């Protein structure tokens, strides 16, 4: 039959006098849709061992008295002033001193100074990265952008933290490395 390959030669002709093979459409059988995976529930002690912090979870409430609010405001201002005076190098010293003095006495001051220290440490590391980028001559524009970003974040976040501390609330800084708690 016309020299066709064996798999094509077996096809029936279209009508009795035709010897050309018929192309049959390939019907693909639809595969069944697999069922959705079922959600496995972890063991009952899983959440006690691995607490999940969700935005809806209540945050601890602190009681801030008059002097505590003043010290918290000074903690945030010491981080800002220290960073601005030392060009970003010593902003974490003031909050660290407050944390060392008040860590066992007052939970509000401990949380406030730890947050300020962690944020200032993050900005210090951002400053170090900017200096490294400056010394690799190609990355000088990146260094300038990082310094501008660090300065804006430093001023805006510390001003917001001072306003929250004056109300007696703990401010949660963005971009903080959790070193102190």
Any chance you could write out the topology, listing elements then pairs?
Elements (H helix, E strand, L loop, with lengths): L5 H4 L36 H4 L16 H20 L7 H10 L4 H29 L4 H28 L14
Helix pairs in contact: 3-4, 3-5, 3-6, 4-5, 5-6
Write a short abstract of this structure.
With 181 residues, the chain is mainly α. It has a domain of 102 residues. The protein is built from 6 helices and no strands.
Structural commentary:
The protein has 181 residues and is an all-alpha fold. It has a domain of 102 residues. 52% of the residues lie in helices and 0% in strands. The protein is built from six helices and no strands. Helix 3 packs antiparallel against helix 4. The protein is elongated. The mean pLDDT is 77.
Keywords:
181 residues; mainly alpha; 6 helices; 0% strand
Morphology call: elongated
By DSSP, the count of extended strands is: 0
Q: Supply Rg.
A: 33 Å
**What's the number of helices?**
6
Distance between the termini: 85 Å
Average pLDDT reading? 77
Largest sheet: none
**Helix proportion range:** 40-55%
Low-confidence stretches: none
Alpha-beta content class:
mainly alpha
**Oligomeric status of the shown chains?**
single chain
SSE sequence, one letter per element: HHHHHH
Portion of residues in beta strands equals: under 5%
């Amino acid at each position: 039959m016309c020299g066709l390959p064996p798999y094509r030669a077996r096809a029936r002709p279209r009508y009795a006098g035709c010897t050309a093979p018929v192309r049959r459409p390939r019907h693909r059988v639809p595969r069944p849709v697999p069922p959705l995976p079922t959600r496995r529930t972890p063991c009952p002690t899983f959440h006690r061992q691995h607490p999940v912090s969700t935005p809806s979870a209540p945050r601890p409430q602190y009681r801030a008295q008059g002097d505590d609010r003043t010290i918290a405001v000074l903690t945030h201002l010491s981080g800002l002033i220290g960073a601005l005076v030392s060009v970003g190098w010593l902003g974490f010293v003031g909050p660290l001193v407050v944390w060392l003095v008040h860590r066992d006495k007052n939970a509000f001051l401990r949380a406030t100074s730890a947050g300020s220290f962690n944020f200032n440490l993050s900005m210090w590391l951002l400053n170090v990265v900017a200096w490294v980028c400056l010394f690799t001559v190609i990355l000088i524009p990146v260094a300038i952008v990082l310094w501008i970003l660090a300065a804006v974040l430093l001023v805006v976040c510390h001003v917001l933290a001072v306003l929250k501390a004056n109300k007696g609330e703990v401010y949660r800084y963005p971009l903080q490395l959790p070193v102190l708690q």
